[in-house]
């Protein structure tokens, strides 16, 4: 697995014969070798952050290993959301007169989500403001990758159509990632505050 290699499909080099001859990864390859491993990053960093940096008092009062369950739920939600977003992207492109395959739509969504997955490493930094700032920058990069994916992966050249499709993808599919990745930061902060309140009692 080399996520950096995927960026070859959204650079000006992607129109060169060598890159055009490069086979695109299939849906199964994207899921197993890219999406699944990258989706584990937020789950692992969340588990490590809360398991090692938050006192045990709050979690000791919960039945079972609730933290592990939350991590698994987050992984499942990410996988489902990526597939749903790819399906939405495919149909949005069809409304613009382009007929990409599900593989191309999934490739575009995977590319756009890589910055958000990687920035989840900053969850280990105990600062909500730093995490919000980093994720804000990652979101801008993701938007730029969607725009380039619309051009190079879907083959749309008209600027108006590129902008419209990019905006539609960001407004519909990007909302889900904002809820899961950024919303999780707020929930962790709430857990820490709640734990502090329980400790005071």
Can you describe this structure?
76% of the residues lie in helices and 0% in strands. The chain has nine helices and no strands. The mean pLDDT is 80. Helix 3 packs antiparallel against helix 5 and helix 5 packs antiparallel against helix 8. It has helices at residues 3-6, 17-20, 27-53, 57-60, 66-95, 102-119, 128-152, 159-172, 174-200. With 201 residues, the protein is mostly helical. The longest helix is centred in the middle third of the chain and has 30 residues, at 66-95. The chain has one domain. The protein is globular, with a radius of gyration of 19 Å.
Which characteristics define this entry?
201 residues, mainly alpha, 9 helices
Q: Quote the average pLDDT.
A: 80
The major beta sheet can be summarized as: none
Shape: globular
The residue ranges in which pLDDT falls below 50 over 5 or more consecutive positions are none
Q: What fraction of residues sit in β-strands?
A: under 5%
**Strands, total number:** 0
**SSE string, helices as H and strands as E:** HHHHHHHHH
Radius of gyration: 19 Å
- What gap, in angstroms, lies between the N and C termini? 49 Å
What is the helix tally?
9
The helix content is over 70%
Structural class: mainly alpha
Protein name: Yip1 family protein
Keywords: Membrane, Transmembrane, Transmembrane helix
Domain Yip1: 22-176
Transmembrane segments: 30-48, 68-93, 105-126, 132-150, 162-186
